[in-house]
Amino acid sequence: MAGPVQSIERAAAILRLLAGGSRRLGLGEVASSLGLAKGTAHGILRTLQHVDFVEQDPATGKYQLGAALLHLGTSYLDVNELRSRSINWADALAARSGEAVRLGTPLEGRVLVIHHVFRPDDTLQTLDVGALLPLHASSLGKVLLAFGATPVEPLLEDEPEAYTRHTLIHPSELNRALGEIRDLGWGAEVQEMSMGEAGIAAPIRGQGGLVVGAIGVSGAVERICDSKGRPLPALITVLREAARAISRDLGAARW
């Protein structure tokens, strides 16, 4: 039998290295970590970049995993327990709310959308499964931060990106908002990621009561909020009912 192909082994080692770190890595760091010559490491990184398995920051020249890997790996979502136990409840929530519903879990400092139900009308919509959302500017992400599903400290080490003038980027503002989310049991973002759009989300708990994900409703701000920019109570009610139902299915006894 033929032996292993060295170039593929090296490419796999680079992908594991990038996946295992919390930051982007430069060419020299990749080469020294794996004991490769810089020329060899550079050639493999360029190939991985060509097929979108690796992305290079144009400002720093450093490398991170590419979006194609997320889409390549979305087959696991079909057997993911959180997604499978949420599908029926998410469909029902979209029907009751009249809005799009997304389910998210934390991944490498972002929110990975693992399920998306379109708004139940005939408008053109784009499937968000596999998309990565910012933690601080999405209702799903703020809920995950507030309830400890992902740490907030790395986000605050560098000033978060401002997507609109409403985005919370100062640590004091963000911490205050997360405290309010914990008190209320749900979170919102109103034009923080995209002008004219708003969303609300609630935590999903598993066994032991730990938050394992979040479910959210999103749409045009005039449909999600009242004239003062406050999320509509009726939407909050049906959202929290769906989150509790999924949590019960996952074994969260107190829900």
UniProtKB/TrEMBL annotation:
It holds the Pfam family IclR_C. Residues 68-252 form the IclR-ED domain. SMART domains: HTH_ICLR. The keyword Zinc-finger does not apply. InterPro entries: GAF-like_dom_sf, HTH_MetabolicPath_Reg, Tscrpt_reg_IclR_C, Tscrpt_reg_IclR_N, WH-like_DNA-bd_sf, WH_DNA-bd_sf. Coiled coil: none annotated. The keyword Translocase does not apply. Residues 5-67 form the HTH iclR-type domain. PROSITE patterns: HTH_ICLR, ICLR_ED. Keywords: DNA-binding, Transcription, Transcription regulation. Gene3D superfamilies: 3.30.450.40, Winged helix-like DNA-binding domain superfamily/Winged helix DNA-binding domain. This is IclR family transcriptional regulator.
